[in-house]
Amino acid sequence: MNKHLLIGALAGLVSCCAANGPAQAQSADIKTIVSINGPPVVLNQSSSTNMAGVFMIGGSTSATVTQNGTNNAVGILQFGGTTSASAGQTGMNNFAFVGQTGQSATSFVSQIGAMNTGSIAHFGRVNSSTVVQTSP
Fold first, then answer.
1. Which domain holds residue 117?
2. Counting beta carbons within 10 angstroms of the beta carbon of residue 108, is it exposed (0 to 12), middle (13 to 18) or buried (19 or more)?
3. Per-residue confidence (pLDDT) for residue 124, from 0 to 100
4. What is the pTM (predicted TM-score) of this model?
5. Which residues, in sequence order, are CB contacts of 129 under 8 Å at separation 6+?
6. Radius of gyration of the chain (CA)
7. Number of compact structural domains in the chain
8. 31 burial type by CB count under 10 A (0-12 exposed, 13-18 middle, 19+ buried)
């Protein structure tokens, strides 16, 4: 179900970008990060369109993604003993998905914009999640 939500949201995000009217210069920042037993991931994006995919495997995983732009989308998947994720988005259209599997999972999603979609899925023993959404 979440896979369909992710695909639908990304299709909507792309159509919003394409429907901006006459051809004009737009900047896009698209990142894919794969980490296996690596250090914490910190990603800051500030283009008009920001997309990030973070996939982490390890004993202890930590990801922080901050996006400031018109259209923002982030997906974070973590597998480990202790998982921690944070996503902060400011823009017109914001989409965030966090999926975590481990003994302890903590996640935080903050979105400020006209259209906000946030989803968190935990599979573990001790889980904590917060989603804050604000429309102007």
1. 2-20+28-134
2. middle
3. 85
4. 0.81
5. 98, 105, 106, 107, 108, 109, 120, 122
6. 15
7. 1
8. middle
